[in-house]
Amino acid sequence: MTDAAPLRLRAADADDARRLLEWRNDAATRLQSLTREEIDLPTHRAWLARRLADPDCALFIVEHGGRPVGQVRLDRSAFDVEVSVGLAAEVRGQGLGARSLRAAQAELSRWPEVTRLTAVVRKQNAPSLRLFAGFGFEEESSDHEVVHLVKRL
pTM of this prediction? Predict the structure, then answer.
């Protein structure tokens, strides 16, 4: 598939549980996650049900050329939306993170009161730090493990 293949976000649903869990439990993903332990299917299904029922969460499956290749999650809190992008191992490094983040920003119209996008990234996750910096996110704070990024809208 070339980068010119269409990319779209579709709303995730309960049928995506196994796919989302596989991506989440990928060793490289866990290494960059805030919670690093492997998650079992029942725990994941319960988490997914809560996220899907939450009006302050928008969870999407990234489809590239009609094939599911990742997820984007938007979590609203007052005037902020935290954005999370995760891609399947086989498509990382192909520019799909940037395309996914661009598509996610277009979804913010559901919450017109939002004034800031935020992201929390592990310090050693250089690709994600570059991705968010490329979209105008700036470091707001950091500690020994993570960087808190913000983009004012």
Answer: 0.93
Domain ranges of the chain: 7-152
Q: How far is CA 55 from CA 46, 52, 90, 107, in A?
A: 16, 8, 31, 14
Mean pLDDT of 7-14: 98
Handedness of CA 52, 9, 89, 86 (dihedral sign): negative
Residue 3 — pLDDT band, cuts 50, 70, 90?
low
Class of residue 80 by CB neighbours under 10 A (exposed 0-12, middle 13-18, buried 19+): middle
pLDDT tens digit sequence for 44-87: 999 999 999 999 999 999 999 999 999 999 999 999 999 999 99
| Residues whose CB is less than 8 angstroms from the CB of residue 139 and which lie 6 or more positions away in sequence, other chains included | 147, 148, 149
Give the Cα separation of 71 and 48 in Å (integer).
12
Q: What kind of architecture, by CATH, is found in domain 7-152?
A: 3-Layer(aba) Sandwich (3.40)
* Inter-CA distances, 144 with 16, 76, 122, 147, Å: 34, 25, 9, 9
